[in-house]
Specification:
single chain, eight-stranded parallel barrel
Length: 282
């Protein structure tokens, strides 16, 4: 059986645990920018006594356009994420797109994320599972937009058969037509039937796929995030940026950094209510 709760750098995530937050910019733009944002996120976490993991991508390999900004690459990106761990004091997570990236990324990151588009790639899932298990980390698999939530059980089995019981599953919307995602909150409880803690991706869920660049509607982030926590999600993934409109990647669906504190506070309070209610039902 998968572990529940799982431990992310000493932070528990799972049933009856406080809400875990995976937050940070979409992509690493520069060392200075990342360390500044990470420090501000750390300060918010300390003020609210919230469990936070810092997120940023070293390479946005699934961009729509060939000209789109992708990030600094594996080596430089991992150096910057290592600095977040050592200088800022936050656990970190990033996504990998190739099985060959798993070994080096798992040595730096407490969570390796499997992108939704790649979650059925067995070699990638196996490599992430084996390397995170070897380094005491966790795998976070995003549910593809094109599969049913119950089918995530097969991906969990791949992780377990690769020696990794510490698995998170992330809901990030389902394709509806050609340029729209919808969130079926039933997916949270269905994926929890696997035994894994479930994460809700509040920012990619408001994407509007299609065109040369992906659009989005960040105004919907608070509404969907609150609904997901009420539905039982154990963690919330939110990309955030000091100036989303100037961000080189995913700006339309990133939460402004100035709104992050309020969002974490609201969602944490909902989680406390849900946990209390569940305990009273026993």
């Amino acid at each position: 059986m998968p572990a529940n709760p799982v431990s992310v750098g000493g932070l528990p995530c799972g049933t009856d645990q406080p809400l875990l937050f995976l937050v940070g910019p979409c992509v690493i733009e520069s060392r200075e920018m990342i360390l500044d944002v990470a420090a501000r996120i750390r300060d918010i976490a300390q003020e609210l006594d919230a469990a936070v993991v810092f997120k940023a991508s070293f390479d946005k390999a699934n961009r729509t356009s060939f000209e789109s900004f992708r990030g600094p690459g594996l080596e430089k990106g991992l150096e910057i994420l290592q600095a977040v761990r050592e200088e800022i004091g936050l656990s970190v997570t990033t996504d990998i797109h190739d099985a060959r990236q798993a070994e080096s990324a798992a040595k730096v990151c407490q969570i390796l994320q499997i992108p939704a588009f790649l979650a059925r790639q067995t070699d990638l899932v196996q490599a992430a599972a084996e390397e995170t298990a070897r380094n005491g980390g966790v795998v976070n698999v995003k549910k593809p937009q094109f599969i049913a939530p119950a089918d995530m059980a097969h991906i969990v089995q791949k992780c377990e058969q690769s020696g990794q019981p510490n698995v998170l599953l992330t809901e990030r919307g389902t394709t509806f037509g050609y340029g729209h995602l919808v969130n079926d909150m039933q997916a949270i409880s269905i994926m929890k039937e696997t035994g894994c803690p479930v994460v809700y991706d509040a920012t990619h869920s408001v994407q509007r796929p299609g065109g040369k660049t992906t659009g989005g509607n960040r105004a919907m982030i608070p509404h969907l995030a609150r609904a997901a926590v009420a539905a039982g999600s154990d963690a919330v993934f939110m990309e955030t940026h000091p100036n989303p409109d100037q961000a080189p990647s995913d700006g339309p669906n990133m939460l402004p950094l100035e709104e992050l504190k309020k969002m974490i506070q609201q969602l944490s309070e909902i989680r406390v209510l849900i946990n209390t209610w569940q305990k009273n039902q026993v």
